[in-house]
Design brief:
Number of domains: 3
CATH topology of the largest domain: Rossmann fold
Structural class: alpha/beta
Number of helices: 22
CATH architecture of the largest domain: 3-Layer(aba) Sandwich
Shape: globular
CATH class of the largest domain: Alpha Beta
CATH superfamily of the largest domain: Thiamin diphosphate (ThDP)-binding fold, Pyr/PP domains
Largest sheet: 6 strands, parallel
Number of strands: 18
Radius of gyration: 24 Å
Distance between the termini: 66 Å
Length: 552
């Protein structure tokens, strides 16, 4: 008779899940032993939140559910930050927690807490297994919930005695449901194309839905045939390259000053797989003209007309919607709106000139803009980015182009600073043969510093760039602007490269721009986790300037 642990691993194998991210604990010993014997890859980490962040990152990179497995009680509570991050990102994380045995019936058992209730607000589905026989059904149901509609995390609590119990009649594993095509109506597509074709100053903004729908080919063809100017944000970054002829770069007005005016002047805005959230000013007058006509395509119906009235709201799978638009176009192509393109390129060039002026600064400590301008020359052409938070990081997102699909991993709408390091674990596991760089600030690095050990133990050669100005830079600038002083914003300019060396990786200190080429080459050639500790001076990023304007 199989045990609950064996049924759990059977279920993962049937669903083609071959990795488990975990941190060992008493509730997990049996199930981890079974998984190890079966040959599943066990990525054991140093903090349960890091476990869930890394699994979330792998789920994003593969567009397929990934599993975290943590112990109950404090292991479960630690994991919740990563689960909540996945929830706001729409990532199909299957978050499993062990739990105290059911046998004592709640009589002051060690590490007992209502785990399902705690997880429920930040998952699509949450349940606890009470019998070993139920495990295959619950794993299958969790998988189905995670992948249906707008994807998202799910949670299962499985008590230790349910893992160890045997059963003769397990419930069957439900077959994974087909991903619905969610095609739009012909009338919606015709109306959307009519509005776009009549527009004088249209723009297209694509978000993570483009990545989840795997719709790069369809959007590329549509943009080439319609000559619509294109901007990307979130997981859409790099799905179509920033240097494509129709691309105008980042859609984030906090990082791309050119779009602040471009979006304000646009008369039609096509939004693809992106919430009209705070990053896009809720679609409101702080960023867009009140007269602008909006068309939005989203798989999640409540997003439509949520923050702004739409001319056309299409609830559909984005790939299906783009295919329908191409079919309606037939063999036609649209002429380029030359005056509008010139205007957008002028705005782009003016912003680039501002950045070039900052990058010309060769004084010390290094200007972060100058550092990233130099770094850009020496990064591998196929590099993948895991971005953390902080002013240094925001300057990097301003300066470096997005050129690789699935290669622009961010914190998500929860803005969970620190998660860039565990995210890099998942990114490297998902793309093992490709160069990965994690870019962080000295404040953010501290959250999951021990995951440097995870990179070393699992032989994951991620290059880490740490912008070190000895401060919580964003908060320092916000406090100075709004309070006139600073409190609790100072850090030491610690030797983080020595900490990496202590864990068994490699690293070095960068104090001058002329050190950048050699250091970057050595880092990527080392074949080991490698930390570059970059001494910079604090410089208020466009992101922070944007935040200050919203607060003052």
């Amino acid at each position: 008779m199989p045990t609950g642990a064996e049924l759990f691993v059977d279920s993962l194998e049937a669903l083609a899940i071959r990795e488990i991210f975990t941190l060992v604990g008493d509730h997990l010993n049996e199930v981890l032993s079974v998984a190890h014997r079966r040959g599943l890859r066990i990525i054991d980490m140093r903090h349960e939140s890091g476990v869930t962040h890394a699994a979330d990152a792998l789920a994003r990179v593969r567009r397929y559910p990934a599993v975290s497995l943590v112990t109950g009680g404090p292991g479960h509570t630690n994991s919740l930050t990563g689960i909540a991050t996945a929830f706001l990102t729409g990532s199909p994380l299957i978050a499993v927690s062990g739990a105290a045995p059911l046998g004592p019936a709640g009589r002051q058992v060690f590490q007992v807490i209502d785990q399902v209730a705690m997880a429920a607000p930040v998952v699509k589905f949450a349940a606890q297994a009470t019998q070993a026989a139920h495990i295959p059904y619950l794993v299958g149901r969790a998988f189905a919930e995670a992948t249906s509609g707008r994807m998202g995390p799910v949670h299962l609590s499985i008590p230790v005695d349910v893992f160890s119990a045997k059963t003769e009649q397990p419930l069957p594993l439900p077959a994974p449901p087909p991903r619905p095509c969610g095609a739009p109506s012909s009338a919606e597509v015709i109306r959307a194309l009519e509005i776009l074709e009549a527009a004088e100053r249209p723009v297209v903004i694509a978000g993570s839905g483009l990545w989840w729908a795997d719709a790069a080919a369809e959007l590329d063809e549509l943009l080439r045939r319609t000559q619509l100017p294109y901007y990307s944000i979130t997981l859409a970054r790099g799905v179509l390259r920033d240097d494509a002829p129709y691309s105008f770069g980042y859609a984030d007005p906090a990082l791309n000053k050119a779009v602040q005016e471009a979006f304000r002047e646009a008369d039609v805005v096509l939004v693809l797989g992106k919430r009209l959230d705070s990053r896009l000013a809720l679609g409101g007058a702080k960023l867009f003209s009140p007269e602008a006509r909006f068309i939005q395509v989203d798989i999640h119906a409540p997003e439509l007309n949520h923050t702004r009235r739409l001319e056309v709201g299409i609830c559909a799978d984005l790939k299906a919607a783009l295919r329908a638009m191409l079919e309606m176009l037939g063999g036609r192509s649209w002429p380029r709106r030359e005056a509008w393109w010139r205007r957008l390129r002028e705005l782009e060039a003016a912003w680039r000139a501002e950045l070039d002026a900052l990058a010309s600064d060769r004084s010390l400590p290094m200007n972060p803009v100058a550092f990233f301008a130099e770094l850009k020359k020496h990064l591998p052409a196929d590099v993948l980015f895991s971005w953390d938070g902080g002013d240094f990081v925001h300057w990097g997102r301003v300066m470096l182009p997005a050129l690789r699909p699935g290669g622009w991993l961010r914190l998500g709408p929860l803005a969970t600073i620190g998660s860039g390091l565990p995210n890099s674990v998942g990114l490297k596991i998902g793309r093992p043969g490709e160069p990965v760089v994690m870019i962080t600030g000295d404040g953010s690095l501290g959250f999951y510093l021990a995951e440097l050990d995870t990179l070393v133990r699992h032989e994951l050669p991620v290059v880490l760039l740490v912008g070190n100005d000895g401060a919580w830079g964003v908060e320092r600038e916000l406090q100075l602007a709004t309070q006139g002083t600073t409190v609790a914003c100072s850090l030491r300019q610690s030797r983080y490269e020595k900490i990496m060396q202590g864990f068994g990786g490699e690293g070095e200190l960068i104090e001058r721009l002329d050190q950048v080429p050699g250091a970057v080459h050595r880092a990527f050639a080392s074949g080991k986790p490698y930390l570059l500790n970059v001494l910079i001076r604090g410089l208020r990023s466009p992101f922070t300037e944007w935040a200050i304007r919203r607060k003052t």
